[in-house]
Amino acid sequence: MSTHARPLADWLAASSDDALQHLLSSRGVRPDVPWQDFFDAAEALLDPSALTKLLPSLTAAEAAALLRAADGGDPGGERETLTALALLRPDGTPYAPLVPVLAGRSVTEVGDAAAPGPAAETASAHAAERAFTTVAVLADVLLVAREAPFALLAGGSISAGEKRQLADSGISADIVDTLLAIAIDAGLAVAANRRLRTTASAETWLISSVADRWTVLVTSFRASLPRGVRSADGGWTPPESWPFAHPWDPSWPERSRMLREGARLLGLIAEDGTEPEWAASVRRGEDADPDALVRLLPAEVDRIFLQNDLTAIAPGPLEPALDVRLRGIAARESAAQASSYRFTAESMAHAFVVGETEESILEFLGGISLTGIPQPLSYLVAQTAQRHGLVRVSIDDETGRTRIESTDLHLIQAMAVDQSLRPLALAKHAESLTTRVSRETVYWALTDARYPATLVGADGAIPVRERHPAPAVTAPDVDAPDVSALIARLRDHQGPDADAAWLDRELEAAVRAKAVLQVTVGMPDGSTRELLLEATGIGGGRLRGRDRAADVERTLPVSSILAASVVAQ
């Protein structure tokens, strides 16, 4: 039995549905918990394991107020919040089961941290350069993930092997986790089926200007900050106080370190801890204004030099939309103030796979080139266009199998004996190959093996295919689970006589525990009688037990029992 749960059960029953929704969602209660009434809910919420699970989410101010209340002091301005979490009674005193859970806990006293001072011109310039680099590097990471989604470990991070591959591309492995956290918060990447993939919104972000890219990242970074570092005006508290924001969360030191690193990478904190001009308004909860940041960034260019050795040189940071499209046609070799790109047969074939044509490529390159289109590049585009579609992958209407056809029978013969294609179990059929493997899988297997494969639809048309199509844009899952059905069930079991319901519950618990009860029985003449009863059973509206004083079995109508309490053994 748990008499301490009764006050909370009464408070829950008297609370509004909105207050219950807030409480249950804050405590992480699943909608399918097997609670039958508010007594069940109160006991579960006051279970030591449930309380221990909640404490890490408390902010430093809430934790300090809770300790004051446990010592008999005034919780101050946090009383309402802690009461809404079912940690304190409305009078500001803690529920009994909470006191032992708080034993040994403490909160480091930290004074009010002052807002960071304005950054000097040099520090601001360095912060702007770092923000510019972060945006560019994150774009590189997303482009890699778009082509080959990252495999996720059980903890949610990407493997060391993939970090090394990114490092080989010039992306520091030390910042990969922070960059991916920023991307996920911004809705640019999502974990699905143990893989980290770009989203549809990433496609829009990638072709946006640097200012728009930065604004999206900063706005989402602020929106995703935990309660402990959020300020009342919708911004954030001074970063030097962040390590102390959630004192009872064992994972918080690492989390706060990553948040501070994220703020540094986004140019919101200078290296010396001061604050650049563009960060102050964001910290205060106002809209992000990148104008001051953009003034310190290098000017973007919209023209390139095409050279006879099949390379392209951008004389400055290329506009993002142009850079992304160019990298769909050419492989970028270096990224600096002047980036270089190289056109290869593989990069050109990839461009045709994702929907480019000879005309669209030549039109695009001619529009941004300062040197025209060199003849070797024209030849490469034309040659790739001729080969594209030489191998056609379709579905055989008669058998339903995947069919591979080509006007070049030498290619058919080569594919039939290609060891890398053995998993497809290709079978000769007239002058083509067939397999039971799906059309999409066959197509990408042939593409990986560098065959000029093309998907062909039922109508003979050539559809454009993305290997890893981006998931549909969805709003972040910030809504709490719907517990309205649970609340309704608790309301349905809320009887008119709470005292009688609680007494029944206490008696049933005593019988299960074979406890000794001090029972107060109302007699027909209006008097009362005290009995010391060892509970043995209950049913049919009657309590059975052995009277310790008279050493006889008694059966008492539950309706006659006025009070019952457990006697310590």
UniProtKB/TrEMBL annotation:
InterPro entries found in the cross-reference section: XPB/Ssl2_N (IPR032830)
The Helicase XPB/Ssl2 N-terminal domain sits at 305-428
**Which keywords, in A-to-Z order, does the entry hold?**
ATP-binding, Helicase, Hydrolase, Nucleotide-binding
What's a single GO MF annotation on this record? helicase activity
What is the protein's given name? Helicase-associated domain-containing protein
